[in-house]
């Protein structure tokens, strides 16, 4: 059944429109966005689709085709941060954030369906937030730009849902363009669309969803964010973005009296910012194959310094490299989720087979492997 037909079945009439927002995969730059650093995500073809109609009575009704249960009805005037649980908190949080910012959103009927894998580190929550924000922006003629919608969606996740994420996921979902990676400076949201046509140079970027589920609300992500903030305070800077890579050894010396994990977190963030700069320089000179080893460096840092990897993610990296991949790393928040693998197109099947066989041999559930195709950001479908 189409999303419009299901909407009509649920709510008694057709929607005012249909919108879509993609999940994302991050090429490089992890745990840097809440430190005002650099990131380079690309949108995936997997999207969350929302059929939406206006309401004028202060009622917000939401339904998901992907979660058991009926329509959830909420009062737009009664939305309170941290009070809602489960998936309805995300669209509700967007309505709350819009209203807190002074925008008139008197209610809505929303029906959602998604092809973005949940718990895979591919930003299913950001896609849900951004598609809701874009639909309400259009329907109520709020006049907000993509970056402005992303900031409000992030506020919804930070303050209403209670997950202290950075801005990367929402910016990627709202602002990425077809065939490009998004080079984003999260300190001021300056962005550049970087051509990323791997097929043209005989390469492929694989996404490997380990099917190990993670929940960023469980405290591990928040602990690392707090650790990064503690490191910045100890160094006398507002954020770790202000620590230049050339000055990292001196910064680590100054942190000698801090907890060992604080030094590790600082080392990861500062070095990963530098890795993003190295990758953009290589892409700008069409030296794409040289990006591979930098991805692997990033994984080592995430595994050893930030300590957010897991055996399945490490296995993706080791097995793909052994099969001839140019580079690989975990992507997203970690503790499960997905990895990216850069490989020659001619070797993609061999690399995929090696990953699958390694999971079988280790007794893990078979991962899902698919190519990352740089796709369009949030948009109106009909």
What's the overall average pLDDT, rounded? Answer: 96
Class based on secondary structure composition and strand pairing: alpha+beta
- Low-confidence blocks of residues: none
Q: How many β-strands, per DSSP?
A: 12
Measured between the Cα atoms of the first and last residue, the distance is 16 Å
Order of helices and strands: HEEEEHEHHHEEEHHHHHEEHEE
Please work out how many helical segments DSSP would assign: 11
Radius of gyration: 21 Å
Strand content: 15-25%
CA-based shape: globular
What's the main sheet like?
A: 8 strands, mixed
Helix amount, in percent? 25-40%
Structure description:
With 382 residues, this protein is an alpha+beta fold. Helix content is 40%, strand content 22%. It contains eleven helices and twelve strands. It has helices at residues 3-11, 89-100, 124-139, 146-161, 168-175, 220-235, 248-254, 260-284, 291-306, 311-322, 348-361; strands at 17-28, 38-54, 59-64, 72-75, 108-114, 180-185, 190-195, 203-209, 327-331, 338-344, 368-371, 379-380. Strands 1, 2, 3, 4, 5, 6, 7 and 12 form an eight-stranded mixed sheet that branches. β6 (180-185) and β7 form a beta hairpin. α8 runs antiparallel to α9. It is globular and about 60 Å long. The chain starts with a helix and ends with a strand.
